[in-house]
Description:
Layout: E1 24-27, E2 30-39, E3 46-50, E4 59-63, E5 67-71, E6 76-79, H1 83-87, H2 102-112
Parallel strand pairs: 1-6
Antiparallel strand pairs: 1-2, 2-3, 3-4, 5-6
Amino acid sequence: xxxxxxTFPGTVLHATDTDLTGYAVEAxxxxxxxxxxxxxxxxxxxxxxxxxxWILGRQVVIPAGAVTAVDRETETVxxxxxxxxxxxxxxFVPGTADEDGRHRMTFTDYYLAFFR
Length: 116
């Protein structure tokens, strides 16, 4: 994973130029769902992934630093996480206020534990 988990790695920086909403997401060991939202806020890039029936319709945040490749032709985003890591990630709750940054910090702490 990229050291700054909220920024796309240089190899996939072009992802900031593309709305990735609707793209499929592939973990290192298989598909996990579709991108429901793609945040393009500098320094806070992330994907909100709807895991659909795979994890009972949960939504999870995947920070941009986890993205390893974007295939525009097949509309697929590849991430350097396993399905289990994503399954165990904190749930994204739409509309959760994050004025103090605590909600984002929950995701930061979770993903950094795997990629230090």
